[in-house]
């Protein structure tokens, strides 16, 4: 989990993301979408406190 130094802004985020209530939910979202979970940002805002940063798996 990453501690957020400045407030996260969805308009400035260039990566694919999703909001979730728990860190475990981030993992489930990534698995469901077939993506790799690269970062979890704790916004400390309820009810969807965590921002899950996702990316495609690299080509093998």
UniProtKB/TrEMBL annotation:
<protein>
    <submittedName>
        <fullName>Uncharacterized protein</fullName>
    </submittedName>
</protein>
């Amino acid at each position: 989990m990453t501690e957020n130094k400045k407030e996260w802004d969805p308009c400035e985020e260039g990566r694919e993301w999703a909001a979730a209530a728990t860190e475990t939910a981030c993992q489930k979202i990534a698995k469901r979408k077939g993506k790799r979970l690269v970062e979890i940002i704790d916004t400390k805002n309820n009810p969807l406190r965590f921002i899950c940063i996702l990316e495609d798996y690299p080509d093998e």
